[in-house]
Automatic annotation (TrEMBL):
Gene3D superfamilies: Vaccinia Virus protein VP39
Residues in Methyltransferase domain copies: 66-158
Name under which the protein is recorded: S-adenosyl-L-methionine-dependent methyltransferase
InterPro entries assigned to the protein according to its UniProt record, in alphabetical order: Methyltransf_25, SAM-dependent_MTases_sf
CDD domains the UniProt entry points to: AdoMet_MTases
Keywords: Methyltransferase, Transferase
GO process annotations (BP): methylation
Keyword Methyltransferase attributed: yes
Organism this protein belongs to: Crucibulum laeve
Keyword Transferase found: yes
MF terms in GO: methyltransferase activity
Length: 294
């Protein structure tokens, strides 16, 4: 599909809040509506992966320390806190504090920071680092830096788990949406969900061992029953959240108005319902920092 970039942004009726973090390329809003989307997304993928949110082969001990990079609304930390001893220390960082929960257990701590420049005093600190869906946050050039920083702050023998989108397929409407999303990622120096295929190759180069990938596919659309309806909602909500950034970029020659975007979203919903085999896929890549680091 040929994509052109219009010179002017397209009008958008709805005001949404975005991060003001310096030099950020983050795509998604930072407001209550996005907080709710992230919550729904968390529980959707938890179900798809059999109720699991801890993938690395470890059992967290009372004195362990855990970091979530790109914590967003903190929903993963709030959930994992129910599964581990209350004495486990849980840290969440993000470039924006708007989404941090107002109420949380005392062992959870939130702070503003970027995974590309983690605090120096965190070297060899964490038993586990969790990071999820930063394809709309990190530039291609920032991924190696972020992973090197994660390697640095992991304790010897500690684990990282990286959860990313691995694509979705249906018909022509989804293809047009994916084309706009890909163009948006590229316009901000990002690589999109192709990163899921590169992570297993990058991690060993940065000193990680025992690299493992788990992948799950979720049918999406009413044809797939209750779980398919949840899958459809996850896809539609994602593209609703991307709407302001795509309109601001001018639609990339695929749509030329907000109404055009809304019409495409509506058509996408129908397409998912009517396309047997429509799906979305995600993967988790986890890896270990060697006990003896060279």
């Amino acid at each position: 599909m040929s994509i052109t970039v219009p010179a002017a942004s397209l009008d958008h009726r709805e005001d949404r809040n975005f991060t003001s973090f310096p030099n950020s390329s983050y795509i998604f809003p930072s407001d209550d509506r996005e907080k709710e989307r992230l919550r729904n997304q968390h529980f959707f993928w938890r179900r798809v992966f059999g109720g699991r949110i801890l993938f690395a082969p470890i059992m967290l001990q009372p004195t362990d320390v855990v970091l979530e990079s790109g914590a967003g609304s903190g929903i993963w930390l709030l959930d994992i806190a129910k599964e581990v001893p209350a004495s486990v220390t849980l840290h969440g960082i993000d470039i924006e504090s708007n989404l941090f929960p107002e109420l949380h257990p005392e062992n959870i701590h939130f702070s503003i920071s970027s995974v590309t420049t983690l605090p120096h005093e965190w070297t060899n600190k964490f038993t586990l680092v969790h990071q999820r869906l930063l394809i709309g946050a990190l530039k291609k050039s920032e991924w190696p830096t972020a992973l090197q920083e994660i390697h640095r702050v992991l304790a010897p023998g500690g684990w990282v788990q990286l959860f990313e989108s691995a694509g979705r397929e249906a018909g022509p409407c989804l293809a047009r949406m994916r084309a706009m999303a890909s163009a948006l990622y590229a316009s901000r120096g990002q690589v999109g969900d192709i990163i899921s295929r590169h992570l297993p190759l990058i991690l060993p180069e940065l000193g990680f061992i025992n690299v493992t990938t788990e992948e799950r596919e979720q049918p999406s659309g009413t044809w797939a029953g209750k779980e398919g309806i949840e899958g459809k909602k996850n896809i539609i909500d994602l593209y609703i959240a991307m709407k302001p950034a795509i309109l601001k970029a001018g639609g990339f020659g695929i749509i030329n108005s907000e109404q055009g975007y809304d019409d495409l979203l509506e058509a996408l919903g129908k397409e998912l319902d009517e396309t047997m085999g429509a799906f979305q896929r995600a993967c988790v890549v986890y890896a270990q920092k060697p006990v003896a680091v060279k």
